[in-house]
Amino acid sequence: MSRKRQSTRPTQATRRSRRGLAGALLAAALLPGVLAPGAASAATAEATTGTTTAGSAARSGSVLTLQGRGYGHGKGLSQWGAEGAARQGVGWKRIVRFYYPHTRIGKVGGSIRVLVTADTDRDTRVVATSGLVVKSLGSGAVVDVAAKHPRAVQWRLRPASKKRTLVQYKLAGKRWTSLRTVPGEAQFQADGPLTLVTPSGRTSYRGALRSSAAVTGGRDRHTVNVLPLEQYLRGVVPLEAYPSWHAAALRSQAVAARTYAAFERAEYRSRYYQICDTTSCQVYGGADAEYGTTDAAIRATRKAAMTRSGKPIFAQFSASDGGWTQGSSLAYQIDQRDPWDRWSGNPYRSWTVSFTAAQLRAAFPGVGAFRRVKVLARDGNGAWGGRVTSIRVVGAQGSVTVTGDAFRSALGMYSTWFRKA
Fold first, then answer.
1. pLDDT above 90 covers what percent of the chain?
2. Taking a C-beta distance cutoff of 8 angstroms, is the pair 64, 391 a contact?
3. N or C end of the chain: smaller count of CB under 10 Å?
4. Burial call 313-351: b when 16+ CB within 10 Å, e when fewer
5. What are the backbone angles phi and psi of residue 14, rounded to the nearest 5°?
6. Is the confidence at residue 161, as pLDDT, over 90?
7. Which residues contact 38 (CB under 8 A, 6 or more apart)?
8. Structural contact between residues 80 and 342, judged by C-beta atoms closer than 8 angstroms
9. How many CB atoms lie within 10 A of CB 279?
């Protein structure tokens, strides 16, 4: 249990960053003075190094204060924009068609393989439960472990060799005992949700929990949750949107999340996992995260996904686009004014962030003591000329020119849409 996975575990840097509401909520929770909506949220997000507020007062000792709009890249669905639209009585179909133009509402189904990133050891360990079985992926054989040892309190799968998996059980107050090995990889299945035991706690999951090798024949194992796509969404939507939001906003989020997952599944069809459970993909909390209102939104949009040429699109979404969506080379990501994002309840419709000289020097050490910044180019869309695409940082020892996104990333800002206050 103490051995840590190393080289084969994927990191956030290997995935597409979405920066949706889940990431925004965590960043807000970490920051002093942020006007944040109050709900739970997810793992990994970009923390802001300055002090961000909804007002205009600069922090004492700051040498640079910026005003900005939005949170995230602004591509695809604006989560706060969807809620703004829903409050005006706009239906979910109109919302998703606006944020994903030049697409159609199609249907997707099937199952998906989700990497459980919290399980950082080589074991897949579950709490004993009714109907628990172990299925060998090598032979297809199913072992009724619940019947063999009904007094066991926990079971685990661990690599026995490159081609076999060891099945072990634990009685209360006793050490682990080996039951048998099975060919190939293996997975737990049961009559209902399974409770996974990880180094950081316990979480319940629907479907199967698989002990899966990152490399064919490898001994390094990761835990992967295999379940129907519709059940997977039940653990996603309440963490990517507020369960208290209007039904049309939750339905729009369900469609976006379903589409995003279906796209990732197609991209990584043969890999041992197809999507992760953090903001690097989209946040997934298993059965413990499920909520009545979001379950209803998933049912109301069952199998609905945004498609182009019959295939799921790369349905990016972000917390707030600031009032103007961001275009790209993709036909369904266009620059357009968003009439719904800037409603008064959106905490990211405008913000102010202040930085000290020490923070700026740490972010751009090559320029020396900070003197000034100069915006060199914008994308031309919306207020102030739009999002920053190029900016120069000038210091006592020189200057550096970076993209707007590199500047945002270095300082942990909400978006690239900003100006000097």
1. 83
2. no
3. N
4. bbbbbbbbbbbbbbbeeeebbebeebebbbeeebbbbbb
5. -85, -5
6. no
7. none
8. no
9. 27
Note the pLDDT tens digit of each residue in 174-221: 999 999 999 999 999 999 999 999 999 999 999 999 999 988 767 789
C-beta separation of 70 from 323 below 8 A: yes
In the chain, where the domains are located? 123-219
Residue 205 burial (C-beta neighbours within 10 Å; 0-12, 13-18, 19+)? buried
Estimate the crossing angle of helix 79-87 against helix 92-99, to 10 degrees: 140
SS3 at position 22: helix
The enclosing H or E element of 189 equals strand 186-189
Backbone angles phi, psi at 181, to 5 degrees: -110, 155
Report whether 157 contacts 196 (CB < 8 A). Answer: no
Q: Is the pLDDT assigned to residue 312 strictly greater than 50? A: yes
Q: What is the pTM of this model?
A: 0.88
Count how many Cα atoms sit within 13 Å of the Cα of residue 39 in the half-sphere of its side chain. 16
Give the Cα-Cα-Cα angle 115, 121, 126 (nearest 5 degrees): 75
186-189 and 194-198 strand pairing = unpaired
Assess whether pLDDT exceeds 70 at residue 264. Answer: yes
Strands (E), 84-175: 104-107, 111-115, 124-127, 133-136, 142-143, 154-161, 164-170
Give the pLDDT of residue 220. Answer: 86
The residue with tokens 């998996």 is 165
Is pLDDT of 35 > 80?
no
